[in-house]
Amino acid sequence: MNQIIECVPNFSEGRNQDIINEISEAISNTKGVHLLNVDPGKATNRTVMTFVGDPDSVINAAFDAIKVASEKIDMSKHRGEHPRFGATDVCPLIPVSNISFDELIPYAEKLARLVSEELNIPIYLYEYAAKEEKRRNLANVRSGEYEGLNKKISSDDWKPDFGKNFNKKSGATAIGVRDFLIAYNINLNTKSTRLANAIAFDVREKGRIKRKGHPVIGEIVYDKDGNAETIPGSLKYVKAIGWYIEEFGIAQISMNLTNITETPIHTVFEEVVKKANARGASVTGSELVGLIPLKSMIDAGKYFLKKQNRSGGIPEEDIIKIAIESLGLNQVKNFDPNKNIIEYYLEKITNKNGNLIDLSARSFSDEVSRETPAPGGGSVSSYVGALGTSLAGMVANLSCNTRGWENKVEIFSEKAHEVNKIREKLLSLVDEDAHSFNSIMEAYKLPKDTDKNKKNRSKAIKDATLYAAQIPLNIMIESYNSYDLIEFLAKEGNQNSLSDSGVACLCVHAAIHGAYLNVRINLKDVSGGEDIMKKAEKIIKESHLRKEKIMNLVEEKI
Predict the structure, then answer these.
(1) pLDDT tens figures, 334-356
(2) Contact 336, 290 (CB under 8 A)
(3) Catalytic pick from 34, 82, 417, 435?
(4) Annotated catalytic, 179?
(5) pLDDT single digits (tens) 55-99
(6) Which of 309, 457, 435, 420 is nearest to 373 (CA)?
(7) DSSP 29
(8) Residue 330 contacts by C-beta under 8 Å, 6 or more apart in sequence?
(9) Kind of pairing, strands 173-177 and 238-245?
(10) Which of 315, 517, 547, 497 has the alpha carbon at shortest distance from 424?
């Protein structure tokens, strides 16, 4: 699956729309990225832009935007209410999908090096990318702001991570890796802002001011340095305040969740429910402002399924529905997964023609029947394998819900989860097989008017053909990996579903055999595929044996 990251650079310009437009165009004109939001502020004289894409494309877009900002913004003349020390003040990179913090840090360092060397802007690394603990906190990095930057750069403690010279026009930039920030509101069955604030203080990391006697009007307690002491709230990485929303006629707890890895959205929701109940109030739902990563919704759905002692090995769509209903995300406004989940939103705007697997069963059948070579046998084989694993998942989930087997839910839920991962891979291979054939067709269209072009064309055809053989091999591998699960379910699962285990086995074997035929035909006239063929022949041989063993077991039990 593709890696997706988000970038949220802050530029020290919020009043000149022409400059804002030039910076945003540098981002939106970069291939592979999508500009999601441009949020200028006149009082702060600052604009926040949000864009997403694959890591390399995001780095390219970020560099281009920082370059434009360095050309158009003069920090020696800048004034605004928000703390700042550079034309591009901060530029955080945020993992969204299929990439870790550790994997993202080298990209932050690459961008830092580029900006420093090409634009002569000193760079400080912060948050997860920081080289020392005191530089993790952005406030520390930016302390002194632009006016104190020249002195700061020359000090031993605050030399930039990249670059060493003061840039009078552009200042400095903080580049880092941080967690996804979620703006999240929880609704209460009250109009009392005071009560909402009390609950907010109960949960937020900052907590509330410590007082003697009465918690609201009592005398404030100060430490030896004269600072007001606080009583921390119960949730780390949560900022919260209570307010009344006239539009909805309810009080809300408005929150920023700054580390959803450590404090996920479902943990926040459950804790607010607990604290609200303790104060005689009830949570009636919640509201998401903006986008949320898919993983957060999946984790929430699985949390509530586990709480209900139900299997988590169900389709992704169903898990998300559980999360939406459990969090009450449709209470005050509609939560649309295609608009509010970042990966779904990206899929919607980048894949306008749609995928084969998104077609109805009839439409997919129609598409296969047309007089075009793709989708063909490889895609059908993968789809048949996916249907087989779907049946295996059904058996596992039915076993979870078998009366008297409540102590086996965890076992069968895990089996359902494992088989569902294989099913998802096979579904993705339906489209990948069709794409691989189209790649061969594109290679044949390459020019052959010169010897060099002929050579390049021949290589492209060979590479595309070997790739087209690798895809059905992957179908064979994934399908074969489900045999152990199907055999376990035939032996230990709900015995009323024995026939379903048998059909699952037959589908998987058909998928393997069908994919094997596609490997053979793709390698028929090309060299270099010996290793692929060897692996395919081993799998098809073992598949016959596994199929016979499982079907004999099923037939005997029936």
Answers:
(1) 899 988 898 888 777 666 556 88
(2) no
(3) 82
(4) no
(5) 999 999 999 999 999 999 999 999 887 789 999 999 999 998 889
(6) 435
(7) T
(8) 285, 324
(9) unpaired
(10) 315
Tell me how crowded residue 151 is: count the other CB atoms within 10 A of its CB. Answer: 11
Please tell me the distance from the alpha carbon of residue 76 to that of residue 147, in angstroms, as a whole number. 8
CA separation for the pair 235, 238 (Å, rounded): 6
Structure tokens at 226: 């004269």
Q: Is the pTM of this model over 0.70?
A: yes
Cβ distance 554 to 502 under 8 Å? yes
Residue 352: predicted pLDDT: 55
Please confirm, yes or no, whether 157 is among the known catalytic residues. no
Q: Name the 3-class secondary structure at 161.
A: coil
Among candidate residues 433, 500, 509, 513, the one labeled active-site is 433
Here the tokens at position 417 are 């989860």
CA angle 296/300/303 to nearest 5° reads 140
Beta carbons within 10 angstroms of residue 456's beta carbon:
15
What would the DSSP string read from start to end of 163-228? --S--TTTB-EEEEE-PPPEEEEEEES---HHHHHHHHHHHSTT-EE-EESSTTTSEEPB-TTSPB
* Alpha-carbon span 496 to 452, nearest angstrom: 64
